[in-house]
Amino acid sequence: MSWDARQRAMLAEMGFRLPAAAAVAAEAEVVELAEPEPQAPVAVVPPPAIVRVAAPVMLAAPAAPSGFAGLDLPALREAVSACRGCGLCEQRRHAVFGNGALQQVQWLVVTDPPDEADDASGQALGGQPSGDAGRLLDRMLLAAGQRRGGDAASAFVTPIVKCRPPRGRAPQPAELQACEAVLAAQVELLQPRLVLALGLQAARRLTGLTEPLGRLRGRVHRWRDLPVVVSFHPAYLLRSPADKAGAWDDLCLARRTLQAS
Questions:
Q1: Where are the alpha helices (DSSP H) in the chain?
Q2: Lowest mean pLDDT among 94-103, 124-133, 217-226, 239-248
Q3: Which residues pair with 158 in a beta bridge?
Q4: Would the pLDDT of 49 be above 50?
Q5: How far lies 220's CA from each of 57, 193, 212, in Å?
Q6: Residues 196-213: pLDDT tens digits?
Q7: Whole-model pTM above 0.70?
Q8: What domains sit in the chain, N to C, each tagged with a CATH number?
């Protein structure tokens, strides 16, 4: 069969590969087909037997250190200072346990991993140059009716992992898992009513989702039977002040969630 120029253009537009011009010319000729020669019978080969493969066995994730259970808060702090549950201990200066109310807190604020200033001071958002971020966090908490210092302290601030990852990289799964045992012990001792996750790494770990921070905000998640509200890290807000309005919306959501619980 041959095609004129218009037909060839239409076929090309539809994505069909066209024969070369020589082949097209050959197709235009009328060719008489010879009678096909009889073919030898084809042996029928039975299909191969079906081999059923067992489903792969999923290996359990390595257990996090369990030596933190049953400790009071001062003993837990000491245990974290001496912890060698993952490789982050090899290059830390100080483990960052956290600070704030010492019992039955309203909000547990879980932040992204410590930065260099936190590592130097051993304080969560307390040392310089992260002091500006710490002051902003304190203002945010106060505006929401919470505080982490003083006699009326009602919030506790702690990072998702207690040691700073080298060069500020994201913590690896084994590092997050090792520190989750500490976070679980802090929850057991502090008995928070709500978790505020500040920053992408803290938010993804506590929600179990890998979505961008913008998609994790604006809804209430659950972690260990606690409501979790996601917002921006204060250090990010210092760089992007236009998002402070969104952070205020997140704090309002946290307040409403606490009031409804």
A1: 5-13, 21-28, 73-81, 116-121, 131-143, 173-190, 200-207, 213-216, 234-239, 244-260
A2: 124-133
A3: 110
A4: no
A5: 34, 13, 15
A6: 999 999 999 999 999 999
A7: yes
A8: 73-260 (3.40.470.10)
